[in-house]
Amino acid sequence: MHNNAAPNSFKVQFELLLSNSVFSIDLDLPNKGVIGIFGESGSGKTTLLRVISGLQSIDNGLIQINNAIWQNNAFHLPIHKRSIGYIFQEASLFPHLNVEKNLAFSQKRAWVNKQSADSTLNQTEIYRLLNIEPLLKKWPHHLSGGERQRVAIARALMINPSVLLMDEPLSALDYFRKQEILSYLDKLKKELQIPILYVSHSSRELARLADYLVVLEKGKVRAQGEINQVLTQTDLPHYLQKDAGVIVSACVIEKDSQWSLQKVSFGDNSDSAELWVHDNDTKLGDYLRVQILAKDISIVLSKPIDSSINNILLSSIVSIQKDNQNMMQIQLRVGKNTLFSTITQRSAKHLQLEVGMKVWAQIKSVALIA
Question: Residue ranges per domain, the chain?
């Protein structure tokens, strides 16, 4: 295990034996944006956060955020001196304090750290982004689950953290409360200039929020990188196979209110691609994240005349690879954009697919997650 890190990175390296399980982690992460931590139960997701925070002790290792070393083989920064905001599954607000006093208590712990203070938000910005003002005089037991979690996020931000750790923050919420909090997290992601480590069992949440993805398996890093880089690997673990594909940023360019559809465009202006997706009450000009799953793209050699599928795009085949499930992953170029299709070997042979061929990619609108 090497102990060197770039001055503007988030480096985490350690080895740990815990409950007869060996954790061997080596991560070099971005120093801002949402870093999704994904894996099956017992893979080490929560252990990773606990080690970074200092709640789980390690004998040796390296934890470095930008120029600040929190641990190396000769030094260990105590828990209370680590500038971390930690958000758990349950909000755990002080029941004897109203929201305003809960936040004030947290603010007293704010780190006087110019680097983190310059990259996080002031109180006014936190209140605005999380819509906290209407809640200030309320008591925790009068808040909904979504409101409690908003306050918990605000509380974590009030301390000027250098890093925000979120451990399954939506797991205790119902579907509608999750959507509510996700909309607030979208806003925070755009304005925060610190790394946010977001642990989740939900690949859909990570597809919406994460820029960078870490896949853990049995205490080891199975994959890490930009989310599209990870989700297009041909050797993905079986529990990620269904999520293989790409995530694109798309602009809403047309509305069809009669059928509750909207047309979005992704790619650059000179070579963009257009798709019909379900209308989710966005406005013309708004940008969405759209996940296009490889399993939901079929390939035909000529453009269908009669089809129930709205999205049929002229494409060229860039590469053909076998994945670890004996399926074929077809990399497609649509203008200057890249898509992936997963089909059976039988289908690939039947169509006699070859690199360079022009084909049509059929994408179901319902398969697009905006």
Answer: 10-231, 245-368
